[in-house]
Amino acid sequence: MAARRRIPCDLRFLLIPAAFMFIYIQMRLFETQSQDVDRLGSPPLAAVVIMACSRADYLQRTVQSVFKYQSLVASKYPLFISQDGSNQAVKTKSLSFNQLTYMQHLDFEPVITERPGELIAYYKIARHYKWALDQLFYKHKFSRVIILEDDMEIAPDFFDYFEAAASLMDRDETIMAASSWNDNGQKQFVHDPYALYRSDFFPGLGWMLKRSTWDELSPKWPKAYPYIRLSISMAIYGLIAFKTFLNNIYTYWDDWLRLKENHKGRQFIRPEVCRTYNFGEHGSSLGQFFSQYLEPIKLNDVKVEWNAMDLGYLTEGNYTEYFSGLVRQAQPIQGSDLVLKAQNIKGDVRIRYKDQAEFESIAGEFGIFEEWKDGVPRTAYKGIVVFRIQTTRRVFLVGSDSVMQLGIRKS
């Protein structure tokens, strides 16, 4: 009988550590649940998607660049790779990263081109972009998406820049998208890492879109020629065909994006100093273009504290006054030897052009991009293209229509 009475007593002693263990487990569960609630209470700011196809070595370099800065803000910017097609090297490389989500677009639907001479690749790329953005906006329900490609490196303040841009886009519905790229972002044409501009020309090459905008665009997405990396075309066709392809790209891109019912007078935000660098060089014919326009691009190396900056000057109501003030203060020059004249003036200068041909001539003298489409030169706002010369001084190329739109004196 005595032995039987000792058994419950021993069990009671064993229950004490078990109770402490139970309390400890419950506390840890509560802590974990609280963290989950906190995480769910702060949804991601934007998904980041790297569009890939068949360049595993480039993809490796891009992902490493993104991880360098994204790992610190991974909860705000979940990372995806969207592969078009079944290249096994790209798939294997993508799946080797456990910090991101892999998506694969397999398109077996036959392509019927609409115009003679078109390549099926145009249609394939268009389908991939639409599929990927539909997946991220509608299946994963992100409110914003940042689109990168598999041949890009990013700047230290890339994510801070887009967080500031997101806030700006939420405040101003006239901003259609924000880009990290400046077509005239070569080292000799930029200076200020804090400077941002509005543009009527879509910059691309690392850009952010809101779901509300995609709601408009997705049903109207073209069968071919959406936003396509120009290096893809150059890799396929070489430098000789580049300008022809460029015209085709912007013809169809503009048909989609710049039509009044889609564009609705909205504009794009771009930086002076690029927050992405494009390293995608392919083939000997591309080398000339790459060395002239892409290799000299300045990738920002300054950690700008964007959350401490007031970007109110970029909103629609303020920007016209702000920008026109900069142009009015610039000293007008004209005639021949414009580059020499601009170099010999201490402050900013402005140069009038009367039409596209004259713009191309002046742009060629300075060495900036000459192309424009649908009446819009690259990087232009209200027909005005701005770039730096000799580090700090600005040059404004001012169109005839800009004079009336911004109230600039005819001089």
Secondary-structure blueprint:
Blueprint: H1 2-41, E1 47-52, H2 56-70, E2 79-84, H3 88-95, E3 101-105, H4 120-139, E4 144-149, E5 152-154, H5 158-171, E6 175-179, E7 196-199, E8 207-210, H6 211-217, H7 230-237, H8 242-257, H9 260-263, E9 267-271, E10 276-278, H10 283-294, H11 316-329, E11 331-333, H12 338-343, E12 349-353, H13 356-366, E13 372-373, E14 376-377, E15 384-389, E16 393-399, H14 400-406
Parallel strand pairs: 1-2, 1-4, 2-3, 6-9, 11-12, 12-16
Antiparallel strand pairs: 4-8, 5-10, 6-8, 7-9, 13-14, 15-16
Helix pairs in contact: 2-3
What proportion of the residues form beta strands (DSSP E)? 15-25%
Q: Tell me the count of domains.
A: 3
Rounded to an integer in angstroms, the radius of gyration calculated over CA atoms is: 27 Å
What topology, given as strand order, has the largest sheet? 3-2-1-4-8-6-9-7
Q: Class by helix and strand content?
A: alpha/beta
Q: According to CATH, what is the class of the largest domain?
A: Alpha Beta
CATH architecture group name of the largest domain: Alpha-Beta Complex
Membrane topology: Single-pass type II membrane protein
GO molecular function: alpha-1,3-mannosylglycoprotein 2-beta-N-acetylglucosaminyltransferase activity; manganese ion binding
GO cellular component, one term: Golgi membrane
EC number: 2.4.1.101
What can you tell me about this protein's structure?
The chain is built from 14 helices and 16 strands. 38% of the residues are buried. The model is unreliable at 1-5, 29-40 and 227-261 (pLDDT under 50). An eight-stranded mixed beta sheet has the order 3-2-1-4-8-6-9-7, sandwiched between helices. It has a four-stranded mixed beta sheet with strand order 11-12-16-15. By secondary structure, it is an alpha/beta fold. It is globular. It folds into three domains: 6-34; 42-314, Alpha-Beta Complex (Spore Coat Polysaccharide Biosynthesis Protein SpsA, Chain A), CATH 3.90.550.10; 331-406, Roll (2,3-Dihydroxybiphenyl 1,2-Dioxygenase, domain 1). Helix content is 44%, strand content 18%. It has helices at residues 2-41, 56-70, 88-95, 120-139, 158-171, 211-217, 230-237, 242-257, 260-263, 283-294, 316-329, 338-343, 356-366, 400-406, and strands spanning 47-52, 79-84, 101-105, 144-149, 152-154, 175-179, 196-199, 207-210, 267-271, 276-278, 331-333, 349-353, 372-373, 376-377, 384-389, 393-399.
